[in-house]
Amino acid sequence: MSAEPALMSLTAVAQAIAQKRLSSREATQSCLDRIAQWQPRLNAFMAIDADEALEAADAADAALAKGGHRGALHGVPLAHKDMYYEAGKVVTCGSRIRRDFVATTTSTALRRLKDAGTIRLGTLQLAEFAYGPTGHNAHYGPVHNPWGLDRITGGSSSGSGAAVAARLTFAALGSDTGGSIRMPAHFCGVTGLKTTVGRISRAGAMPLSQSLDTVGPLARTAADCALLLGLMAGADPEDPTAATGPLPDYIAAAQQPLKGLTIGLPAAFYVDDLDPEVARILEETVAVLRREGADIIGVELPDQRQLTAACQLVLAVEATAFHKRWMIERPQDYGPQVLMRLQNGLAIPAVSYLEAMRWRGPALAAHLAAVAGVDAVIAPVAPVAAPTIAESDVGNGPDAESVIQRLTRFTRPINYLGLPSLAIPAGFTAGGLPVGMQLIGRPFDEAMLLRIGAAFQRAADFHDRVPEFG
Amino acid sequence: MADVAGVPVSADEAARIVNSIGPAFEGFAPIAGTLPFDLEPASFVQIAANSAKNTGRNTGKNIGKAAT
After folding, report:
1. Minimal CB count within 10 Å: which of A257, A287, A332, B37?
2. pLDDT-derived band at B13, boundaries 50, 70, 90
3. Closest residue of chain B to A331, computed from CA coordinates
């Protein structure tokens, strides 16, 4: 067992607590110690509930001593993106508008994790209303990347990426509408699972775009994501859009070998205009997958630029519709960039939006036909490693949308198609910045991605590397 | 359009909006106006669900026991 419990994986710490080799208090105190050390540098937490966490940890230990084991994550302390409603708690959504909003319900994803025994450490920073890919927040300041404090974390799940990377929490919920789990996973060197639309209930999660929003975890390993997905997925009477089909055993899937699988490598778009270090790491990742027994073949995907454009039309309109009342009543309370992006949605005709929605079916069918011969597709999450906070702080200037588009170029097509995608740490630049790759699957086939991701992590150790507090 | 929506914007903001969303319209132009009359908007949900049922390769749904 690690001398510092916070350095353990979610799976390992849950087992250690269940087997009474480690107390919940020890695990919680270890996270709180690291939070106290790192938070002033990272700004990853929105709120830290230290006393409440220790009290809950003691209760979990006492229950376990009496034979009461609540669930698979009994006594495990976690923190989540501050957009998941928890009854009686402030949920800021990263905004000034909701700075004092107290939720009256608890989100299904959060409740299922609590039912499994988790403890609340606090809440994590995010882009204002989860509408931004960099990690900037006009109200609460930027979150800093633990691999380089002058670098962005990516967003919108900025605090989740930074906190998991710095080992301040064993895992964290994020959300992904245009890349908001995969971007922080990529820039911060952690594992992030964007689920299929409908795989996890969105009840009680702050909405951004009803057609694109997905709930998912950021964690240290694919196996940890498998554990969390199994606990959260499934039908929910509170969310009629949640899928109702049977669930596979994700943990078992993550233990399967790569041998016999075929992975597609796009011939274009995802390999165009890459930073040379990202291109190198893609090649090295493919080499590892091949060495571990996977066949790698080229795939010709449909025009991804059209998917990106369609995603922008859908996202802009739906986000603006959610926010319109506040845009009228409280425009001064938005940060400049978020207000600008919300204003963009006003200029998109209803017919254009509906065409983008109607095309989703044919676009998905064309994608599935293109990948019929492979089990998953591998691609970079972004064409570059983390840029500096200064160079990406474009506010509402004329370059803002182009900066956003460049960063999310490889993530938005996947959101438009509603597909699952697992971002895994795949290497580091010469300057020490992490680079992630995404595995893209078929609808509801998260198990395949977890299988490939976990097999890769058994062969490579990038997910085990921890940023130093220098 | 912003005026009609009840959220008026300045001339500068209007110009910025055009610059911001112009690429989206350009990117979608090859699709706009080409969709067949009988295309059902919900076909996306149907195709995704059918894919989950009918995937022929080594899908995750065939791994391990069903946990329902």
Report:
1. B37
2. confident
3. B7
pLDDT tens, residue by residue, B37-66: 999 889 999 999 999 876 545 444 434 333
Does residue B15 belong to the interface with chain A, where contact is any CB pair within 8 Å?
no
Cβ contact A334:A128 at 8 Å: yes
pLDDT in tens, A145-163: 999 999 999 999 999 999 9
For position B17, what pLDDT does the model report?
83
Reference A315, options A215, A214, A403, A212; nearest CA is A212
The answer to whether the CB atoms of A346 and B51 lie below 8 A apart is no
- The alpha helices in A66-181, defined as continuous H runs, are 108-115, 158-165
Q: Identify the helix (H) or strand (E) that includes residue A368.
A: helix A360-370
Pick the catalytic residue from A9, A107, A156, A392.
Answer: A156
Model confidence at A349: pLDDT above 50: yes
Contact B57 A400 (CB under 8 A): no
Q: For residues B64 and A252, is the Cβ–Cβ distance under 8 A?
A: yes
How does the average pLDDT of chain B come out, rounded? 77
For A159-207, write each residue's pLDDT tens digit. Answer: 999 999 999 999 999 999 999 999 999 999 999 999 999 999 999 999 9
Chain B residue with minimum CA distance to A336: B13
Please give the ipTM for the structure prediction.
0.90
CB-closest option in B27, B44, B66 to A306: B27
Q: Is A81 among the residues known to form the active site?
A: yes
Q: Is A156 a catalytic residue?
A: yes
Query: Closest approach of chain A CAs to the CA of B10, in angstroms?
Result: 11
**Which residue in this structure is represented by tokens 């009543």?**
A329
Nearest partner of A76 among A49, A110, A46, A114, judged by Cα:
A114
Query: Residue B15's closest chain A neighbor by CA?
Result: A398
Q: Are the beta carbons of A38 and A48 closer than 8 angstroms?
A: no
The shortest CB-CB distance from A355 to any of B18, B27, B35 is to B35
- Whether the CB-CB separation of A451 and B60 falls below 8 Å is answered with yes
Residues in chain A within 8 Å Cβ distance of B53: 245
What pLDDT was estimated at residue A324?
97
CA distance B57 to B55: 6
